[in-house]
Write the C-alpha cells for this entry.
Amino acid sequence: MKEVVVNINKVNLYSLPCIVIGTPLFIIVYRYFHGTGLREILDSNPHLLMVLVLVILVMIILHELIHGMFFSLFAKRGTKSIKFGIIWSKFAPYCHCTDAITAKQYRIVLLMPTLLLGVLPTLTGFVIGNFIIFFSGVMLIWGGIGDIIAYSLTRKVPGSALLIDHPKEVGFYYNDKI
C-alpha cells in the first residue's frame, strides 16, 4: 500500500494566503455589487457577529457530517466504518472512513461539503444580497482547502483504484500495483 498525504500543518500553511488574500477580495466584490460589507452590516446590528460565528460553527459540524454521509453511502459497512473527531492541537475536525472506497467515490466525498456549504451559499448569498450567507459560504470554502488538496492528490490515481482514508493526515492509502 502506498501512502499519499499532506501534513495538516502544510494544509494550514497553504490555507493562510487564500484566507488573507481571498477573503478581502470576496468582500470587495460583494461590496462593489451590493454597496455594503461586513463593517456596515455589523454597525447596523452588532449581534450579527455572534450569529455569524454560530452559523460558521454549525456549518463546520455539517461539513463533517456530509463527509460521513457520503462515506457511508460508498463504504461496505456503511455508518459502522465512520469515525468523527477533532485534532485539538490543530483545531481540525475530521471524519474518517475505515473501509476502502474507489478513488472516484473518494473525490465525491472530498468535494461535496465544500460545494454544498461553501460554493452554493457563497453564490446564493451573493445573488440574493445576503452578506451573512455569502460570508459563511466563503469561510466554508476556506475550511474545505484540505479537502481540495486531498482531491488534487487523488488525480494521480485511477478512478477505479481502491483508497483507504488516512486516519491522521490529509490523504489516503492505495495499492499502487494496479
